[in-house]
Amino acid sequence: MIDDAAIDYQHFLQALLEAIPWPVLVFDRSLCVRCYNQNAVKLLETQEPWQGHKLDQLISDEAILQLVQQSIKNGSPASGEYTRDSSGTAWKISVTPLAHKRRKTTSRKRHTALKQKYRFFAIVIEDLTELRRLERVRSDFIANISHELRTPLASVHLLVETLEEAIDTDPDQAQVFVEKIEKEVQQLTALVSEILELSRIESGQVSMMIEPIEAEQLVREVMARMLMLAQRHRVALRTEIKQGKTLVAADSKQIVRVLVNLVHNAIKFTPSGGVVVIGTRLEAGGNAQSFYVRDTGIGIPAEDLPRIFERFYKVSPARSKANFIDTGGGGSGLGLAIARHVVEAHGGRMKAESVVGQGSTFSFTLPVTVRSNV
Q1: Which helix (H) or strand (E) segment is 112 a member of?
Q2: Angle between helix 252-268 and helix 335-345 axes, rounded to 10 deg
Q3: Close Cβ partners of 220 (under 8 Å, ≥ 6 residues apart)
Q4: Within a domain: residue 3?
Q5: Secondary structure of 204-247 in the HEC alphabet?
Q6: 3-state secondary structure (DSSP) of residue 49
Q7: CATH number at residue 142
Q8: Alpha-carbon torsion 70, 72, 74, 80, what sign?
Q9: What is the mean pLDDT of residues 51-68?
Q10: Which of 196-205, 274-283, 340-349 ranks highest by mean pLDDT?
């Protein structure tokens, strides 16, 4: 037990509050705030100082205030979880009575002291928003990977059964089934490979061969690789190159793959007669080079944009089949997740902008570098 007359206990208490990793407020039975930490200030985003303010001036959620009153009335801890608004912000609220006593209490005052045992209370707020988001991602991952594996496996099973019936009576038809089985197995193999690759990238196990390379070289290589696909689907593929001689620090193989994925998606979701542009330009300040793929496709709904870089997330697959060009399968939903992780491993950032009916722009940055003379 600390017993040192030289200690400034007011500052000592504040230091303890600041050491707690969650927002904390201490208030009395009348809900008057006595002290708090800076984590509470950041979370509630209300101008301080708060001493002397009522708790209900800082927290307006009626359910939380009822929980506080419950703890005051019963003199016992109370807790609950609350979703604050439509954005999905989730809080875990814990209200705890703070037991304390005077150094000396006469027997005549004992009863009064016991009644006033809990004069102060602490409310601790844990922000569960990110945890709930991760739980949703995990749940979606399990559901999506189960679906992605189950569909081709069911097709293979059905094809094998049909093949068994046709192998002796109709060799030509049997060969067709064999080819279909091979295609399904290839898709399964590609899916598993992408899952393993994403896992390695996320864990930092993929070594990047980062070297200085001209920005326009990356753009032109992707243009050459994707031009035939664009022509096949009657989509114009163009380039916009500004400051193309700028050197960026990149693993050219990985970045080309990112751009190919973005162009492939752009062609897939752009109707015949549309335009896809691959471009690059120097960012303001000159420390980063921007690469972008812009299309005149159908666009992405605003509610889907925040999640398009998540693993397995797909935008309206039913609408895709009905309205967009088929460039070879619906995809695994891992391409953009892999692309984002590759860009971030380079020290860059990736984003998407879109207007339904007008098109989308996917862009990312890479750090500018200089060519080594060694």
Answers
A1: helix 110-115
A2: 150
A3: 239
A4: no
A5: CCCCCCCEEEEHHHHHHHHHHHHHHHHHHCCCEEEEEECCCCCE
A6: coil
A7: 1.10.287.130
A8: positive
A9: 88
A10: 274-283
**Which residue, chain included where needed, has tokens 């209370």?**
121
Write out pLDDT tens, residues 213-267: 999 999 999 999 999 999 999 999 999 999 889 999 999 998 998 999 999 999 9
> Tokens 């101008």 correspond to what residue?
47
Are 119 and 147 found together in one domain? no
Please name the residues in contact with 75: beta carbons below 8 A apart, sequence gap of 6 or more: 97, 117, 118
- The pLDDT of 52-60, averaged and rounded, is 87
Give yes or no: residues 328 and 284 share one domain. Answer: yes
Asked if the bond preceding 367 is cis, omega within 30° of 0, the reply is no
Asked whether residue 4 is assigned to any structural domain, the reply reads no
Instruction: Among 127, 151, 167, identify where a domain stops.
Output: 127
Q: What total number of domains does the chain contain?
A: 3
Shared domain for 94 and 115, answered yes or no, is yes
What are the DSSP E strand ranges found in the chain? 24-28, 33-36, 78-83, 90-98, 120-127, 211-214, 236-241, 247-250, 275-282, 288-295, 350-355, 359-367
User: Phi, psi at residue 341, to the nearest 5°?
Assistant: -65, -35
From the list 81, 80, 78, 112, the residue with the least C-alpha distance to 97 is 78
pTM of the model: 0.54
Burial class of residue 132 in the structure, from the number of CB atoms within 10 Å of its CB (0-12 exposed, 13-18 middle, 19+ buried): middle
Write down how long the chain is.
374
> 226: which 2 tokens?
């994707």
CATH number of the domain residue 122 falls in? 3.30.450.20
Q: Which domain holds residue 110?
A: 9-127
Examine the fold and report which residue of 202, 235, 260 is the final residue of a domain before the chain moves on.
Answer: 202
Same domain, 177 and 227: no
Closest CA relative to residue 341, chosen from 296, 313, 310, 304: 310
